[in-house]
Amino acid sequence: MRSAWRIELPGCPLRVYHADTDAAGVAHHSAYLRWFERARADWLAAAGFSARRLDVEYGVAFAVVHVSLNYRRPAELDDDLAIHGFATIGARGVVVADQTVSRGEEILAQCDIKLACVSIRNRTLAPLPAPLRSALVDAHIE
Asked: Mean pLDDT in runs of 10 for the chain (142 residues)?
């Protein structure tokens, strides 16, 4: 059996709003983390596994354990952007997401995020729920 599966995440369009920017109309560095989180949450929800469902039915959530974010160019007020990326589903409930935010063909930032599936009750590492793991493995790419 394979120990890791790589999955292409569907594109997630977004627009830069005032709440995302500083007084000069440049996206604040913290906005990028929210955008990457939103894209991952939308991807899981589209696969049928919203955060609420993971909590209520399986008693798990994803916790960020490591982030590496490289800013290349600033996003600005009213920019139309897109989040793209890949997720690697590893052993023991660990998911690594490699995501980019771009304006057209120009990559503005790239982020590697390591997530751990954790038990909500005792805050310890938990295996991915079998139905989620099956759905993700079925979506893998070579």
From this structure: 74 96 97 96 90 96 97 98 93 92 98 97 94 78 51
